[in-house]
Amino acid sequence: MYIQALQGKVEILGLKHTSTLKTVNNLGLLYKDQSKLAEVEEMYIQALQGREKALRPKHTSILIIVNNLGLLYAD
User: Fold this and answer.
1) Of 46, 43, 41, which Cα lies nearest the Cα of 74?
2) Per-10-residue mean pLDDT, the chain, length 75
3) Which of 22, 25, 27 minimizes the C-alpha distance to 4?
4) pTM of this prediction?
5) Quick count: other Cβ atoms within 10 Å of Cβ 27?
6) Three-state SS for 34?
7) Is 14 exposed, middle or buried (0-12, 13-18, 19+ CB in 10 A)?
8) Where do the H-state alpha helices sit in 13-59?
9) pLDDT at position 25, please?
């Protein structure tokens, strides 16, 4: 479902839209639950880079993804 939602958001809103990036992060969370660690990292980094371009540097959305990456690397 996340992949379908992501495809639709990319098509309608574009990859850089914050709503699309939220779905990218959520897909990363799903991959984490499935232990697909390479995919998790890819999704988190994509979401982080996009949000860094779209939002101010210390925005909470960015810090949440940084935290998610930290937890991933700790695992």
Assistant:
1) 41
2) 92 93 93 94 94 88 92 92
3) 27
4) 0.85
5) 22
6) coil
7) exposed
8) 18-33, 37-54
9) 92
CA distance 63 to 46: 14
Number of separate helices (H) and strands (E) present in the chain: 4, 0
Tell me if 21 sits within 8 A of 44, measured CB to CB.
no
Q: How far apart are CA 40 and CA 55, in angstroms?
A: 22
Q: What is the DSSP letter of 62?
A: H
> How many angstroms separate the Cα of 35 from the Cα of each of 15, 19, 28, 29?
25, 24, 10, 10
Distances in Å between the Cα of 55 and the Cα atoms of 34, 38, 73, 75 are 29, 26, 24, 28
